[in-house]
Specification:
Blueprint lengths: L16 H12 L9 H11 L4 H10 L5 E4 L14 E4 L2 E4 L9 H9 L3 E5 L4 E7 L3 H14 L5 E3 L5 E6 L7 E5 L8 E6 L5 E5 L26 H14 L4 E4 L17 H10 L9 H14 L4 H13 L12 H7 L8 H12 L3 H16 L15 H6 L8 E3 L3 E2 L3 E6 L5 H14 L12 E6 L3 H15 L5 E4 L12 H9 L4 E7 L1 H5 L7 H18 L2 E7 L12 H6 L2 E6 L2 E7 L5 E15 L5 E10 L11 H15 L8 E2 H7 L7 H14 L3 E5 L2 E4 L9 E3 L19 H6 L12
Parallel strand pairs: 14-18, 14-19, 15-16, 15-17, 17-18
Antiparallel strand pairs: 1-4, 2-3, 4-10, 5-7, 5-9, 6-7, 8-9, 8-11, 12-13, 19-20, 20-21, 21-22, 21-26, 23-25, 24-25
Helix pairs in contact: 1-5, 3-4, 7-9, 7-11, 8-9, 8-11, 9-10, 12-18, 15-20, 16-18, 20-21, 20-22, 21-22
Length: 756
C-alpha cells in the first residue's frame, strides 16, 4: 500500500502495511532522529487533518470516538498550546482540565467553529501506546514488538520517529509506562500506555513543534474494529520492555480512582515539603502543563492544613520557570485554588522529583528517622538481647555444636531467618509458597523434611480472590488448619509511615508465629524502584524489623530478573540479606543459595487441578495444589479427570486419619468422592487400580489405599550451586564516541526476548 493513496481519515483500514513501510525506511536510514518522508506525509495530512475542524470533530464522532476534546491551537497564546485542552471564551483562549469536558453533538459544532484542534480522551475501553523517543532505532524496535505482541493498530504520526498506536482494552486497564535511555535525548525516553481518565492525545490538529498536521497514514478505523488487547498481554508487554530496554524504569498506575486513595497517605511534613519543592528545577523540558499542574495537586494533598503555604510554594515554583514570561498566560495561584479534593498524588511525588531532578537528599535522613520511630513504637521482641555484646573466642568455638540455628523446615529454612522464593510468571511459585506454608502451619513433613509447627501468616498482597481459591484447594486436599492465617490486602512496606507500624502491631498481638510469607516483593515495595539501593535498602531494613519483632522466618515471593542466571531481580542488597534462595522453574524447585552450605538441592513438582465448584454460568471454578515428586526412580502416569477426583478424595481421607500411612478404606474413599450409589464403590475400586498401575497409589493392606508419595522419604537431591552469570558483558559506549557513531552501532538482542 502506498502512502500516496491514503487521503482520508476513514480510509480503508489495512493494518500494519504503511507502518511496516515507515519502519523499513527508518531501519535503512543512518540518521538516528530522521524525519518521516516529507512528501508522502504531506499528502496524507491534507486528507486526515481538514482545515474545517468542525468536519474533523464530526468524522471522529461518527467513527465511534465520542470522548472528544477541544485543543487550544499553536499560536493561541497559552503555555503549551497545541498540547493542552482549551476553549475560546471572552475574546481569548483559556486552558481547561480534561475533566471539564464530556462531549455532546452540540459541542462538536461549537468547538469546530472556534478553530480548536481535536483531542481524544482515553479510558472506558480505549488506550494508546505512545512511543516517545527520538531514537529511530529504538522507536522501530518497540513498534515492531507492539505489532507482534499486541496486534495490528492504526498509526498516528506527529514528530517522527515518535509515534502512537490505538487499541481497545478492558475498562479497568491502568496507565503504564517505561522510561529508558535511548542514547539520543538528554532526558529519558518514554513508552506510555495512555489508559486512565486523565490521559488524552491529539488526533487532528497542528503539531506545535513541526508546524505540520498530525497524520494517520493508514486512516482511522471505526472504534469497534480496533484490535482488542487483554490486560494480561499489556502487562507482559510492559514487563518485557522493563526487562529489555536499556536502563529501564517502569510503573503501572492504579485501577483505583482518586476517591479510593487514602488522602492521609499523601500528607507530608511542611518543612520537608518546602525544602523539596525549592529543590525542584522548573525546566520546560521536564514540566509541560500537565506536569506543572500535577505539582500543584501534590502540594494541595501534601499540605491540607496549610493551603497558604502550598499556594506560596507553587507560585514560587512557577516563577522559576525558564519560559518567556510574556508567553505564560496562566495564573498559578488561580490554578492552585481551582484544584479540588480528592487527589491522587502527594508528598511522595514532590520528594521523588526533588531527588531525581534536584539531587535532594534530606528526605532520606527523615526516612530513617521514621523507621527508627516505627521500631521504637513496635511491640517488643519476645527475647530481646543486648544490642552489643563481646564474646570470647574460646567460648564461641566451644559452643559451635550446641548453639545453632533451629530449623523451621529441616535442612531448608531456619527459624528467624529470611528466604526469597522466586521464579518467572506462571511457574507456580505462589502455589509452592502456599503449600510450604500449610505444611509448616499443620506440622506436616514437606518433601520428606520435618517442620516446626507454629502459626503462619500469609500476606497475599496481590489480591484475595486467588488466595481464597488456593486455600479452598488445600483444605479439600489436606483438611482444616487452624494455625494458617491470611492478610488479603496490599501493604506498603517501603514507606515507614504507611503500613509498617500497623502490620507490626497486628503481628505482635499473635503468639507463636514461626513463618510470615509476603507475596510479592513488588507489591510490598509499593511503586518503589527495585534497582534502587535506597528503596530496596529501606525494604530490607523493614523486613529485618519484622523478623526482629516477631522472631519468625520471613519468606518473600519475588520474580526472576531479566537474566535468569542472576536470580531474583532487583538490587543486590536483597540477595546479600537472604539466607536461603529458592528458584521455581517449570516442574522444579531448586534451592540455589544456602548460607554457610556448599551444596544446594532440588526436587520436582507437579500442579494438580482441583475443581472447587461451578460458576453462575456452569463453568468449573478451579485452583491447584502442589504434588512433590518422590525421588525413587518410579515414573508416574497422568490420571484421568475421574481418577484425579478419586485421588483427591483419597488424600482428603488420609489427611483426616489418625494413622495416615495406614491408608483409607474403600467405602470412605467412595463417600468422599461422591460415589454413594450402588455401583459407586466398584467404580472407585476400578479407578484406584488404574491409579496403582500409574504409580500414584499403593495398597498397604487389603481394602486400604494410600497415595504412593506418603511413604516417600527421598524427594530432594543435592545439586551444585549455580554459577552466577558474569556481569558487565554489554557493549559500552566509548567516552569519546560521537552521536553519529553511537547511532550507527548495531544493536544486538542476545536475550531472544521481546524484540527478537
Amino acid at each position: 500500500m502506498s502512502l500516496d493513496k491514503v487521503d482520508d481519515v476513514s480510509a480503508s483500514y489495512k493494518l500494519g502495511s504503511v507502518c511496516e513501510e515507515l519502519l523499513s525506511r527508518g531501519s535503512r536510514s543512518s540518521a538516528t532522529t530522521a524525519e518521516a518522508p516529507t512528501a508522502p506525509i504531506q499528502k496524507v495530512s491534507r486528507g486526515s487533518v481538514s482545515a474545517d475542524t468542525k468536519a474533523a470533530f464530526r468524522r471522529f464522532w461518527d467513527l465511534g470516538y465520542t470522548r472528544l476534546l477541544p485543543v487550544a491551537p499553536p499560536g493561541s497564546g497559552l503555555h503549551n498550546a497545541g498540547k493542552r485542552p482549551g476553549v475560546f471564551q471572552d475574546g481569548a483562549w483559556q486552558g481547561k482540565g480534561v475533566h471539564s469536558f464530556e462531549a455532546t453533538e452540540d459541542d462538536l459544532t461549537t468547538w469546530g467553529a472556534m478553530g480548536a484542534g481535536v483531542g481524544l480522551r482515553m479510558s472506558r475501553g480505549l488506550a494508546a501506546l505512545d512511543i516517545d523517543s527520538l531514537s529511530e532505532t529504538w522507536g522501530d524496535r518497540v513498534a515492531r514488538a507492539a505489532l507482534k505482541h499486541l496486534g495490528p493498530a492504526p498509526l498516528r504520526v506527529g514528530r517522527w520517529p515518535k509515534r502512537l498506536f490505538l487499541y481497545r482494552v478492558p475498562d479497568d486497564t491502568p496507565y503504564m509506562s517505561v522510561r529508558f535511555d535511548d542514547g539520543v535525548s538528554d532526558k529519558p525516553a518514554l513508552i506510555e500506555l495512555l489508559a486512565s481518565e486523565t490521559n488524552w492525545f491529539n488526533v487532528d490538529t497542528i503539531h506545535p513543534q513541526t508546524g505540520k498536521p498530525y497524520t494517520w497514514p493508514e486512516g482511522v478505523p471505526p472504534r469497534d474494529q480496533l484490535t482488542f488487547v487483554t490486560l494480561e498481554k499489556l502487562q507482559r508487554f510492559f514487563e518485557g520492555l522493563r526487562d529489555e530496554l536499556p536502563a529501564a524504569k517502569g510503573r503501572t498506575g492504579s485501577n483505583e480512582s482518586r476517591a479510593d486513595v487514602d488522602q492521609a497517605t499523601l500528607r507530608g511534613d511542611p518543612d520537608l515539603v518546602s525544602a523539596a519543592v525549592r529543590a525542584i528545577p522548573n525546566r520546560s523540558e521536564l514540566y509541560g502543563y500537565d506536569e506543572w499542574r500535577n505539582i500543584a495537586a501534590a502540594l494541595r494533598a501534601a499540605l491540607p492544613d496549610d493551603q497558604d503555604l502550598g499556594e506560596e510554594l507553587f507560585v514560587e515554583f512557577s516563577e522559576r520557570s525558564d519560559l518567556d514570561p510574556e508567553k505564560v498566560t496562566e495564573n498559578p495561584a488561580r490554578v492552585y485554588r481551582s484544584l479540588k479534593h480528592p487527589f491522587g498524588v502527594g508528598a511522595k511525588l514532590l520528594y521523588d522529583h526533588a531527588e531525581q531532578y534536584g539531587g535532594w537528599q534530606a528526605h532520606k535522613e527523615a526516612h530513617f528517622d521514621a523507621t527508627a520511630a516505627a521500631q521504637s513504637e513496635a511491640p517488643a521482641a519476645k527475647a530481646k538481647a543486648p544490642k552489643l555484646e563481646m564474646v570470647l573466642f574460646d567460648d564461641i568455638a566451644d559452643t559451635a555444636l550446641t548453639v545453632t540455628s533451629k530449623p523451621l523446615v529441616e535442612d531448608l529454612l531456619d527459624q528467624g531467618a529470611m528466604s526469597v522464593l522466586f521464579g518467572e510468571s506462571n511457574t507456580g511459585k505462589t502455589f509452592v509458597a502456599t503449600d510450604l506454608a500449610y505444611h509448616v502451619a499443620s506440622g506436616r513433613d514437606w518433601g520428606g523434611k520435618s517442620t516446626s509447627k507454629g502459626v503462619v501468616v500469609y500476606i497475599a498482597a496481590e489480591g484475595g480472590a486467588g488466595a481464597r481459591k488456593r486455600a479452598a484447594a488445600l483444605k479439600r486436599k489436606y483438611g482444616p488448619c487452624a494455625g494458617f492465617r491470611f492478610i488479603l490486602s496490599p501493604v506498603d512496606l517501603r514507606n515507614p509511615n504507611a503500613d509498617l507500624k500497623p502490620l507490626l502491631e497486628l503481628l505482635g498481638a499473635i503468639d507463636g508465629i514461626v513463618l510470615i510469607v509476603i507475596d510479592t516483593l513488588s507489591r510490598a515495595l509499593a511503586g518503589g524502584d527495585e534497582n534502587s539501593s535506597i528503596d530496596m535498602g529501606a525494604l530490607v531494613q523493614h523486613f529485618d524489623l519484622i523478623r526482629t519483632v516477631t522472631g519468625a522466618h520471613l519468606l518473600v515471593v519475588h520474580h526472576t530478573g531479566k537474566i535468569a542466571a542472576r536470580g531474583a531481580r532487583g538490587h543486590s542488597l536483597l540477595r546479600a540479606a537472604t539466607d536461603t534462595e529458592i528458584e521455581i522453574t517449570e516442574g522444579q524447585i531448586r534451592v540455589t543459595k544456602q548460607r554457610d552450605l556448599e551444596k544446594c538441592s532440588a526436587v520436582g513438582f507437579a500442579l494438580e487441578t482441583v475443581v472447587l465448584g461451578k460458576s453462575e454460568r456452569g463453568k468449573d471454578i478451579t485452583s491447584c495444589t502442589v504434588r512433590l515428586i518422590a525421588r525413587d526412580g518410579a515414573e508416574t502416569g497422568e490420571p484421568s479427570a475421574k481418577e484425579a477426583n478419586v485421588l483427591l478424595a483419597l488424600r482428603a481421607c488420609v489427611a483426616t486419619s489418625d494413622k495416615p500411612t495406614s491408608g483409607a478404606e474403600l467405602a470412605k474413599i467412595a463417600t468422599a468422592a461422591g460415589e454413594r450409589d450402588r455401583g459407586g464403590k466398584e467404580r472407585v475400586r476400578t479407578h484406584l487400580r488404574n491409579l496403582m498401575t500409574k504409580n500414584l497409589v499403593t495398597s498397604p493392606a487389603r481394602g486400604f489405599w494410600v497415595p504412593r508419595d506418603i511413604h516417600a522419604h527421598a524427594y530432594f537431591e543435592e545439586i551444585d550451586p549455580p554459577q552466577e552469570a558474569p556481569r558487565n558483558l554489554g557493549r559500552q559506549r566509548p567516552p569519546d564516541a560521537t552521536q553519529k557513531a553511537y547511532s550507527e552501532t548495531p544493536l544486538s538482542d542476545p536475550s531472544g526476548g521481546l524484540f527478537s
